[in-house]
């Protein structure tokens, strides 16, 4: 990962979590501890974050509450080849003319590359998915109303799926933080509500 991209990822992680560790940043960027420490020192000197023992913290944490979890800009750089493979298989399930629902996420976002040539109606709560398809395909795109969560690039509403209840789709594609013995796991209750 190039230095400029690492700096963007480090700043986004610090801003969303208020404090981020060197170990976490190494995992996210695929860089060595020495590289991450140099990046943190550089960003600290520029006044963009504060260097602390074992990591870094945001200088101006967001005043508006955000969602729990890493921001979209950080997650989109992790396991990209695997996400593309999953997205290709998911898009292959879609037939021309059918409506589909795609919830926001970095794996579901990768579907856009494979949906460009298809003719499907897309209902999504993802700004990134909607924007890409609007600019790069002729597919109709429908987005719900609600609060915009900038770091995750999604629109969520605490009022349930009022708009979604009027949209029929044969297929729905969602991402999650993990899968366990009790099913899918997600980091934030607002995200869970949007996927019900």
What does this structure look like?
The chain is an alpha/beta fold. It folds into 2 domains: 3-63, Winged helix-like DNA-binding domain superfamily/Winged helix DNA-binding domain (Arc Repressor Mutant, subunit A, Orthogonal Bundle), CATH 1.10.10.10; 80-195, Rossmann fold (3-Layer(aba) Sandwich). The chain is built from 9 helices and 11 strands. The strands form 4 sheets. A 4-stranded parallel beta sheet has the order 6-5-4-9, with helices on one face. Strand 5, helix 8 (127-136) and strand 6 (141-142) form a beta-alpha-beta unit. Helix 1 (3-17) crosses helix 3. The model is unreliable at 64-68 (pLDDT under 50).
Write the layout of secondary structure elements.
Layout: H1 3-17, E1 19-21, H2 22-29, H3 33-45, E2 49-52, E3 55-58, H4 72-75, H5 80-92, E4 99-102, H6 106-109, H7 112-115, E5 121-124, H8 127-136, E6 141-142, E7 147-149, E8 154-156, E9 171-173, E10 178-180, E11 183-185, H9 189-195
Parallel strand pairs: 4-5, 4-9, 5-6
Antiparallel strand pairs: 1-3, 2-3, 7-8, 10-11
Largest beta sheet: strand ordering: 6-5-4-9
Using the 3D structure, state the CATH architecture of the largest domain: 3-Layer(aba) Sandwich
Q: Give the proportion of residues in helices.
A: 25-40%
Mean pLDDT: 81
Rg, alpha carbons = 18 Å
How many helices does DSSP assign?
9
Spatial gap, N to C terminus: 36 Å
Question: How many structural domains in the coordinates?
Answer: 2
The general outline is elongated
CATH superfamily of the largest domain: Translation initiation factor eif-2b, domain 2
Give unreliable regions as ranges.
64-68
CATH topology of the largest domain: Rossmann fold
Proportion of strand residues: 15-25%
**Sheet bearing the most strands, described?**
4 strands, parallel
């Amino acid at each position: 990962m190039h230095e400029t991209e690492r700096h963007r990822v480090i700043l986004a992680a610090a801003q969303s979590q208020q404090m981020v560790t060197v170990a976490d940043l190494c995992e996210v960027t695929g860089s060595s501890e020495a590289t991450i420490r140099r990046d943190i020192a550089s960003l600290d000197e520029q006044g963009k974050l504060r260097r602390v023992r074992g990591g870094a913290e945001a200088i101006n944490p967001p005043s508006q509450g955000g969602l729990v979890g890493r921001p979209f800009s950080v997650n989109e750089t992790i396991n990209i080849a695997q996400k593309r493979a999953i997205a290709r298989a998911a898009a292959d399930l879609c037939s021309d003319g059918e409506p589909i629902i795609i919830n926001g996420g970095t794996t579901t976002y990768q579907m856009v590359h494979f949906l460009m040539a298809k003719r499907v109606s897309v209902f999504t709560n993802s700004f990134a998915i909607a924007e890409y398809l609007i600019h790069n395909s002729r597919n109709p795109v429908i987005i719900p109303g609600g609060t915009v969560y900038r770091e995750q690039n999604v629109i969520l509403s605490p009022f349930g799926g009022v708009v979604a209840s009027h949209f029929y789709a044969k297929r729905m594609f969602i991402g999650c933080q993990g899968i366990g013995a009790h099913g899918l796991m997600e980091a934030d209750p607002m995200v869970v509500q949007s996927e019900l």
